[in-house]
Write a structure and sequence with these properties.
Length: 194
């Protein structure tokens, strides 16, 4: 390695997330920053917060941003990928069918990749292991919750994501976008920087 060369973290689970649309890209806005693949895929997705046209069951929002993230991460860890995606249904772009989007192979593959990033040997998963989210103050109707504020079985998601990583991991981060709609909070996307 030559001077001035940056070594990116070796995170096997990250690769499936970058090329395809992320789970929440199917279910709402998502962004991948800091990777060459993100630039090749075009700009970050953006969607207006309107009700989807679908026969999907109504999603239940949470009372706080932290509770929304806790519910969503728990569903991913329990391999309830479609349910996690559908929990964002109230904020899908107009005209999108929630069930079709959430059951798509790309959405399921992205959810499985997140689970792989967090489900590490020696870490108890729900229901034995608890997902806990530190209080994140809500200023307005949109909140960003960093992976360092979310714990699984006492370890932050960031710590779990970096298990087995090599090189400079200082620029790596994952944060969840949580939005309030009709009095309830929903995870509507995430931002992955590598």
């Amino acid at each position: 390695m030559t001077a001035g060369t940056t070594v990116r973290p070796a995170t096997r689970w990250l690769l499936p997330l970058v090329p395809p649309m992320m789970l929440l890209a199917a279910c709402g806005p998502a962004r991948v920053a800091g990777s060459a693949s993100a630039a090749a895929g075009g700009p970050a997705t953006s969607a207006s917060a309107t009700a989807p046209s679908s026969s999907a069951p109504a999603a239940s929002g949470a009372e706080t941003p932290g509770a929304a993230v806790e519910q969503w991460v728990t569903q991913i860890l329990e391999e309830k990928y479609t349910e996690a995606c559908l929990s964002s249904a109230p904020l899908l772009p107009a005209g999108k069918d929630a069930e079709s989007l959430c059951k798509s192979p790309k959405a399921v593959a992205s959810a499985k990749s997140l689970r792989e990033a967090w489900a590490k040997p020696g870490v108890d998963l729900p229901p034995q292991g608890k997902v806990e989210v530190a209080a994140v103050p809500a200023k307005g109707d949109k909140v960003t919750v960093p992976d360092t504020a979310v714990k699984l079985d006492g370890r932050t998601l960031r710590d779990l994501e970096l298990v087995g990583a090599t090189g400079d991991t200082g620029s790596f981060s994952l944060s969840f976008t949580v939005q309030k709609h009709a009095g309830a909070w929903y995870v509507t996307g995430f931002d992955l920087k590598a």
